[in-house]
Write a structure and sequence with these properties.
Helix content is about 50%, strand content about 15%. With about 170 residues, it is α+β, with helices and mostly antiparallel strands. Helix 3 (about 100-140) packs antiparallel against helix 4.
Length: about 170
């Protein structure tokens, strides 16, 4: 966030906001706010302007900060408040993004990612299995065991074992 040589005090504040439909910490708070503090001296703040905020939309108490009540209600019940421009805009954007076509694209992407993960996992597993057979065969060769015994134990052909021996 800063280029080389730029003073630390030029760092702009940054916020990470998590909107949770459950109480992450179980402390019954509507908003949890975290900043960087020294764990050994809590009054010593890093002062980098970074802040993480977790909104607990499941909170039903009376201490929801002003302006968040309608957002919390919208997230919980998808109730659109016509008198709140921000909630109305959020609702419209959700409707635009939450179409059957968009969901199909996301499902297709998810399917492709799962296929790639499975293929990569299978390929890695096969490579590891093959490498294990070869290292076992090499260890057996070093012990002076018969090539035919090594072949029966590892499943490698006589030619593959001889090739390993000649490396």
């Amino acid at each position: 966030m800063l280029h080389k040589g730029v003073a630390f005090n030029k760092l702009k504040p940054s916020y990470v906001i998590f909107i949770c439909t459950f109480d992450t910490f179980g402390e019954d708070m509507s908003v949890y706010k975290f900043d960087m503090r020294c764990s050994d001296k809590l009054d010593l703040n890093l002062g980098d302007g970074n802040c993480t905020i977790m909104l607990n939309t499941a909170y039903t108490g009376k201490n929801v900060p002003e302006g968040l009540e309608k957002l919390f209600r919208y997230i919980r019940n998808m109730e659109c408040c016509e008198d709140d421009q921000l909630i109305t805009e959020i609702h419209e954007r959700v409707r635009e993004l939450n179409t059957a076509e968009r969901r199909q694209v996301l499902h297709t992407l998810d399917d492709k990612l799962n296929e790639q993960y499975s293929a990569g996992f299978s390929e890695g597993k096969d490579a590891g299995y093959s490498e294990g057979k070869e290292s076992t065969a090499l260890a057996m060769l070093k012990e002076g065991l018969d090539i035919m015994l090594i072949s029966r134990v590892t499943g490698l052909s006589k030619e593959e074992i001889e090739e390993l021996r000649d490396r």
